[in-house]
Write a structure and sequence with these properties.
Strand content: 25-35%
Number of strands: 14
Largest sheet: 3 strands, antiparallel
Bound molecules: zinc ion
Distance between the termini: 27 Å
Number of helices: 8
Structural class: alpha+beta
Oligomer: single chain
Amino acid sequence: MSNMDNYNYFNDPRVINSLISGNAGYGLTHKDGTMHLYIDDCFFEDDERIVLKGSDGKFYEMCLYKFLENPSDDEIIGVLADDQSLEAFHGRFANPEDLKNKHLLEGVLFGDAFLCSQDTRVPTSNHNCYQCDGKGTMVNPSIDAGGLSYDDFCDDPDFEEAYFSGRFDVTCSACNGTGKSLSIGWDAFPYEYVYDSGSKEKNPKYGLDVKSVLVSIWRDKIDSYHQDMYDYARECAWERAMGC
Ligand SMILES: [Zn+2]
């Protein structure tokens, strides 16, 4: 039997996943037979973005501060900002009223030109959990964090038998045992970039409608939110690995 190694244990992605606490900033919920995405008020805090329509007819978005430093004549479609920052910006727009009551996307009302506690219908995709590949279980990381070697099995055939028969299995920490992972079907919308044989190219379909621009803002936000959650859990794990 391998010894539990504190260091390896707390650096194991399965353990780190088990330390991630819920998705507080946003969520997916069933409503009227379809899946809806809802977002907390605080989700867009500290990030002010403006959505515009260029002279080429394409929609795009940029940081509101950058726009204010170097304003263009492009048509303002809407602003994603919290109440307070919008208040500060109002005086600087020629027509602040233009920013109000923009209905940009079905189900998403940009009331007062900022997004708050709104929800919208989103496509979702259900696939096998990446960590357990649909089984819903994983080997207890205290058994094999840091990896097992041929010798671990060779020296102890009973351990080998138990290991492969699933006797050390516990509930998967990524899917909580469902084996499935429900995620937003971002692929239904053109993303700003396409990755073609390793190179990153601008997607010509991006910006043809305002939806693709809004979706990409959300997608980036949600991706970085997940990254933050994981990084925080990894930090907590690191402290425990060090015995703090
Ligand atoms: Zn799983």
